[in-house]
Amino acid sequence: MNLLQTLEAEQMATVRAKPLPEFRPGDTLKVNVKVVDVTYDEKAKQNKTRERIQAFEGVCIARQGAGINEAFTVRKLSYGEGVERVFPIYSPLVDSVVVIRKGKVRRAKLYYLRGRTGKSARISERTDSATDKQAPEAAA
Length: 140
Prior knowledge:
Blueprint: H1 3-15, E1 28-41, E2 46-64, E3 71-78, E4 81-88, E5 94-101, H2 129-139
Antiparallel strand pairs: 1-2, 1-5, 2-3, 3-4
């Protein structure tokens, strides 16, 4: 491992204390993001900062990059309009990621979902093949 990879590994360990769960494109995710609200207080003549956590729930349509530059794109429909956000995996603003549903897809990038709405935009649920293989053995 060269010096650059060593430094990257150290930075990744410091930024992300608890690891994110494994997820792939097609999975429905709930990403909890830290949002910083800055307001100006006229009475005290200073800025006040307030941090809160906001959930962004949608379908992961892509993962790109490697190492510290890795990111994933989440798409959701909000009031009939498609909204996409790109989240860096090693960002301090990403608090946590929860996998709600695992999707069964055959592509790495699901950009075709942008042009679809309704039933054609649905993704079927994935059942892990490990559980399917154990079922016949238990019956035997």
